[in-house]
């Protein structure tokens, strides 16, 4: 029997838009799993914890709500993650100076020292992945990523009916790019 991870997203033919999206998610998952293995073995933290550390870098503090929104984490996940970072001596939590209802999170000295190590790891990972592309491909890739980010932030929800009426499934290749 196949595991749940091996099952297709739908029982029919996947929509063309899912081709590129599932590919993007697969790359993100592979990179995150690789980063998790390395970060756990070398620094004793997960990639989710590394994201918190990097997000707090250079800031006096952030509230847990601000941190969750910035990282797109749900509050439950963040609430389970923060105590592990506190136990490891990487962050500390205190009440907000102006609003005692809020908890603030900030890096400790050891957390600040960890930022350089995480940044170096991320830079090496970036170089390793980009080295598989030519210089022109890397430039195009970055332009396309920026375009996707801008488009997703400015356009709001997609109008599915408009896309369905103008796009033929045969106009998309294996990864969802126009042929």
UniProtKB/TrEMBL annotation:
The keyword DNA-binding applies. It comes from Paraburkholderia youngii. Residues 1-150 form the HTH marR-type domain. InterPro entries: HTH_MarR-typ, WH-like_DNA-bd_sf, WH_DNA-bd_sf. Pfam families: MarR. Keywords: DNA-binding, Transcription, Transcription regulation. This is Winged helix-turn-helix transcriptional regulator. SMART domains: HTH_MARR (SM00347).
């Amino acid at each position: 029997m196949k595991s749940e991870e091996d099952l297709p997203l739908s029982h029919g033919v996947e929509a063309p838009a899912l081709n590129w999206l599932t590919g993007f998610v697969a790359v993100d998952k592979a990179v995150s799993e690789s980063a998790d293995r390395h970060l756990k073995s070398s620094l004793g933290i997960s990639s989710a914890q590394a994201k918190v550390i990097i997000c707090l870098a250079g800031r006096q503090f952030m509230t847990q709500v601000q941190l969750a929104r910035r990282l797109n984490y749900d509050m439950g996940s963040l609430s389970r993650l923060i105590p592990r970072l506190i136990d490891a001596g990487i962050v500390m939590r205190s009440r907000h100076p102006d609003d005692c209802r809020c908890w603030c999170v900030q890096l400790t000295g050891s957390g600040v020292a960890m930022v350089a190590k995480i940044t170096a790891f991320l830079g090496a990972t970036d170089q390793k992945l980009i080295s598989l592309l030519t210089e022109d491909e890397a430039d195009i890739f970055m332009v396309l990523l920026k375009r996707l980010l801008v488009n997703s932030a400015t356009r709001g929800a997609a109008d599915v009916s408009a896309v369905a009426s103008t796009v033929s499934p045969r106009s998309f290749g294996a990864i969802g790019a126009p042929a």
